[in-house]
Amino acid sequence: MARQIEYDPVALRGNLLSVFWEKGYAESSLSELEHASGLNRRQLYNGVGDKRAMFLQALDDFSEMAGREFLSALEGPDAGLKEIAALLNQFVAFVRSGAKSNGCMVCSSSQEEIAADPDVRPRIDAYFDRIRNAYKTALLQAVQRQESQIPLSEVNGRAEVLFGVHVALCVLARAGQSAVELEKMVQQVLRGIE
Questions:
Q1: How far apart are CA 13 and CA 71, in angstroms?
Q2: Which terminus of the chain is more exposed, N or C, with fewer CB under 10 A?
């Protein structure tokens, strides 16, 4: 009888997520996934599945983590302009700190060939929809509380612009754009929703 390998599944998922987040699907080799997990290929396949299954789990884990850390403040019943500004300025502050940015794993994955996979595309679309809806919720509440003077009829369009800026900030942070340039972008979009 073969001895079952013991590992911490939470740590394993975190380690696999780190590889895919930094390198993307195509550039993440099985050797790197083995090294990050501390398991050999057969153990990984038996415990998690093939590379695609590992990636799908990592994409789900990233979406849950990023949604909790970044979007939940916009989804609350008291969210408004303050929460929108805080989130967008968080991207700028991160770049200003000098820390290395991997950007948004979902944004990066949407540019890869794997994005056409029938199990990947719906995950990407769902996360993008969550971003859109989070901005729409916060902006709609701001308009209803008269924190923002934009017409109610423009909320959807402005939320779409906020979504675009959110994604752009993620991509530009990963590309090494300066905090000064990102801050200009944020200030411009915030002026448009006052």
A1: 22
A2: N
